Known about the structure:
Number of strands: 48
Strand content: over 45%
Number of helices: 0
Distance between the termini: 31 Å
Amino acid sequence: MNAQFIGISLILATLLSFRSEGQIEVPFKSYIGTDCYMGLKNLTGKEILAPSYKKIEVAPVGNYWLISARAKSQNSYYLYTPEKTNALIYPEVSKINDRWLKVGHTGEYGIISTEGKGILLMNYSEILSAGSSMAITKHKNKFGAIDASGKSIIPNKYKDIKFWEYGGFWVKKDRHFQLVDEEGKEVAGTQCDSVCISEAPLPYCGIMKDKKWGIINKSGEIIFPLNFQSVKLLKTGNIALQQISGQWVLTDIQSRLIEGQEYSGIKSAGLQTIIVDKNYKKGLINKAGKTILMVEHEEISEIGKDWLRIKDNGSERIFIINENKFSGESTFEEIKKVSDRGSGILIKKDNKWGWMNYNKEIMIEPTYKSATPGSFGTILITGENNMTGIISDKGEIIIPLEYKVIIPKDGYFKVKKEDSGWYYVNNKNEKVHCQVY
Length: 437
């Protein structure tokens, strides 16, 4: 789909990383000038972009990095390797896949390769990724698709297209969907009213006809007949099927029904476990259907890494999936997930908030009156004196409790004390002269 940009902010870290198929190290460090404008350096300290931008984002594109740098009302784009940085002379640039970039401006888009070769003329109102090598195109409000060479395999004549990694494209014409393979050929017996595409890389897809759901494979063969109210294809690789009674049954990862288990609700918890509901209580099973936690808990939710929040009788505990056990005997009044990239959670005890990292270490004892996750990886904290400060989603104290109001910006903060007007500070709580806004 659209580019997966990573916002570079000193609040988050000076060296960023993110997770796709594995952990990828970002080869940049951001830095902020005295006027709050942002610049970019490589890991050896060599300047790539001078500090003259309001915002910088990066996205990995194969062996390259796409840099988007916003200065006032205009974006500039660069394609970076350690050997060179090339400016891209387009009003808009975003990632399609590891070989292609979408280029153009406001409804007139095309595709170029990372080597600068033209793949598709700028005749399209939208272009979306389709797997690792293809793309969906939109022209005159109709959808089509191209293959890895840029050749049209599905003409732009459909109301909608959904990409299915293991089967091809579901195209919609009039009121019905039809499966078309990656060579543009219709798959017999797959016309339906709606589709449910898997969250995981599964060779199965849910289809609905006449308000009944079933499961097919990429050849159009029926795996489960169209007898169900609804279906879910879970991240764990399991299939959940809702019976006419409203109860859900589950298959294992070989698509065999797990006998003797019915639930009122089912949802994935990571890639290995499933949260199940029965009679207003929740439990946890693995993808083979084996019980991990009995269905007797008030609430179960994900809180990052492989941790779950378990709530019972007004108190909350931490369950660690890969250890298959609770984290000690500690209970908390409340537990909050902060962000997907954070290194810990917020914990509440004796009506005060603190910070615990994913190594089970309490790095900040519960002392704050309130703690509210906010933008740019920040957590706004309030002390007993009603003064506010900031900690990061890594549990680091950035701004101490000395301000009446704090508004996080990207790499700095707009602040106000009891006896002062507004001004700006950086992540070291040093006053700066900001010209960005």
